[in-house]
# Entry
Amino acid sequence: MTRMKCFIEAWYCENARKLPWRDTLDPYKIWVSEIILQQTRVEQGIPFYYNFITKFPTVQSLAAAEEDEVLKVWQGLGYYSRARNMMKAARVIMETYEGNFPKNIDELKRLPGIGNYTAAAVGSFAFNARMPAIDGNVRRVAARFYGLHDSIGTPKSDSQIEEKLFKQMEACEPSLFNQAMIEIGAMICKPQNPKCDECPLQNSCIAKLHDLQRILPLKKERKAPKTVFLDYIFLECEGITWIEKRPENSTWKGLYEFPNIQQSQETQRKNPFHDWFLKPDETEIKEPLQLKHQLSHQTIFATLWQFSCKEANIVEEKKEGKLKVKLSELQEFPVHKLMYRFITELI
Ligand code: SF4
# Structure
């Protein structure tokens, strides 16, 4: 069997980037960093990590926080379910484990928002638990190193990679082994143009030996994102406006945004909000703002309709369920990225 000797540990110790969460064995800080990095690049994640740790320095402080407070700190990172799950997990850790992170991988996996990768990363980095941490980068390294021709990211491929890496870890410190694999995936074995000449695995790598780097890893086809058309309303009434909270079971749940209507097809720039006003003639309509916003599962074409009028001119029932806020306080609410883009354009 191809062996990936533990010289990757030595390579890691010499070549690893200095990152703030690598100086600690505190499972809370390691966990925070891992959750941030799930959908975020390292350079972008570092300021968020410092900010989060400063605001919520312990699992106790996170467990005691209000949801709006946590979402506000998370703003800009996207995928807000990560922040919500962290709050839930922090509360479970307080209630079930007296504030101490469980050391066992299976118990870690039972915490909200912690899957196989995060459990293995936290368990190995903080407690040296022996379990391969397999993220997208590590999948790519393993597929190339072992010359695997199954599509990556499937349960079958993951268990094949886990089995191989688990054996490979026998002679290694689990913490260093996992960190080395993650670092190789992030810095050396890049999707395009892997730096094989700098790679500590080059002498045994099947892809390198057989020139398969451009073919491996194989990937399953992804579904095309759905197209969505949204019309938002921004009312400017003597220094105030209205926003609303996204409902449960929706994308961006719990975050704030301007009231809106989802259209089944493009509205062709017809004002869909004329029935909001008692006297439409006394309402100033400004040029609508149009933005395209990409999510992993949706391509959103959003139009922000801007109106200026007196509050008395707004139909009362249209304001029901909405929150009246001062324009100067708009930035204090946790908002999703599209809403943030609107606010940035407006203020
Ligand atoms: S030798 Fe090249 S293809 Fe193989 S793991 Fe290293 S960087 Fe990736």
Q: What stands out?
A: Residues 226-346 form a domain with the Nucleoside Triphosphate Pyrophosphohydrolase fold (CATH 3.90.79.10).
